[in-house]
Amino acid sequence: MSTLQRLTDRGLIKPPRWLPGNVQYETIMGSVAYGVSSDTSDVDVYGWAIPQKEDLFPHLRGEILGFGRRSERFEQYQEHHVNDQDALAGHGRTYDLTIFGIIKFFRLAMENNPNIIDSLFTPTTCVLHCTRVGNLVRENRRLFLHKGAWPKFKGYAYSQLHKLAIKAPQGKRAKLVAERGFDTKFGYQVVRLIGEVEQILMEGDIDLQRNNEQLKAIRRGEWTENRLRQWFAGKESHLERLYVESTLQPVPDEDRIKALLMDCLEEHYGSLEGCVMDPGRAVATLRNIQAELDRVKDLL
What we know:
Layout: H1 3-9, E1 23-28, E2 42-49, H2 53-56, E3 76-84, E4 93-101, H3 102-110, H4 114-120, E5 127-130, H5 132-139, H6 149-166, H7 172-180, H8 184-203, H9 212-219, H10 225-245, H11 254-269, H12 279-299
Parallel strand pairs: 2-4
Antiparallel strand pairs: 1-2, 1-5, 3-4
């Protein structure tokens, strides 16, 4: 049973009625997934679901592209600070939930969005729910990786550095800055992102917990902000060269990813007859018709 289904059954959340029973994959994200925290009382959960067939193929309910009112399409469901007091043997657990529709999830994964990519590479101990379709995607997760990961991950790392420089800390983070000289949570995210994209470019794979001791050291305040920025500058130069030398494909293989998507939908829905048209089959049919017309014309 998915976490979303369990929380819905207990009346703690109210997602769309169809959603809980169609969740294909859920995993714990955040510091637990990166191996830098053992605190599982508060968890970020990412996952994805397959919507109703008419949501993906609106022509099945009579919609004509570009004509009339376009019905709403499911993209994602989010719910924050869901408190399950009965979890962890009564100690309680708070969830932040993000469940994507399969189309948006595939699109973001194909773009190498770091959070989405990470959700496919979490340790198996973090996976909360996974159906046969979910396993199909997880087993093929390396298919989404390409050289475009470098500019995408670098952009996210720069964003964390920017926040580190300008964001006024509040609450617990203000205390962190006072004790350690800078916001080490932003700092460790920079190192995490750069470490992951280095693995992608060199190996076409990711181990989210490979550098967890380094990340723990940063969170403990064993790095200064100056050391962090010097480390980043050196890594950036190294990764620019690695980007050029990497044997990864430069852009996503859309044909293979689309084939994986279709396999997922067929596994879930059954036959997709009437939902999509095979262009190759259509062209072959037209050629056969033309050949028959030519044959008849010759007879006349």
